[in-house]
Amino acid sequence: MRLIKVSDEEELSRLAAEYVFSKIKSSEKIVLGLATGRTPLGMYRHLSKYSKEYKQSYSHVHTVNLDEYVGSRAYHDYMQQNFFDHIGIHKNQTHLPDGIAVDLEKECKRYEEVIIQLGGIDLQVLGIGQNGHIGFNEPGTDFSSRTHVVELTESTLSANAKYFTHEKQPRRAITMGIGTILESNEILLLASGEKKARALRELFQGTMNSDIPATVLNHHPNVTVLADEGARSLLEEES
Ligand code: F6R
User: Strand 30-34 relative to strand 94-95: parallel, antiparallel, unpaired?
Assistant: First the structure.
């Protein structure tokens, strides 16, 4: 696992966007795994700007998102507003789990199939939960799990409550499984702010265990972590 130290959220956003943009530019075909939440917002802002400046085509790009709330389109809307609307990507090249599907089990299987049909994920962007979750794989999730429905923990519900001013916050979500995420060729994890410091310390200095799902990334051969000062504040070498 590589750790790239940045000073703050702005530098993190810029570097993440530069990295993802360079992959988009240099690939003939690429499948990007994408995250929502607060952390990647700046990355999407920069990527949208670069795409306009360089008139970047997205005809060779497919995106697959990590998760969506059950009974909601919240993350569909987030992706549309913060990224897809700005880059001119064709709708049928963007994929998210369908949280309003009637048959959720069938939807999970369909989503796994979508990823297989695309040939797998080339680069997966991840955030990290305060409790160490990746995607919505909460503590205790099996490391071999595939796309599934989860009951969100109180920690995750309260961290994300602020985004639900117009609709009741769902307590369940569909998420790519840890096994699904681990099959990505490459992973870029973004961590910003002191609230992520404990999870980051476990990731780098703890033992691999399902109580802190992100620790599984120690198993993956190609992970880069971009972390700002706040997120690194509990790492031993920093103090
Ligand atoms: C979002 C996701 C989550 C978030 C994590 C951090 O698609 O899968 O794992 O990355 O909850 O969220 P923020 O960035 O809001 O702190």
Answer: unpaired
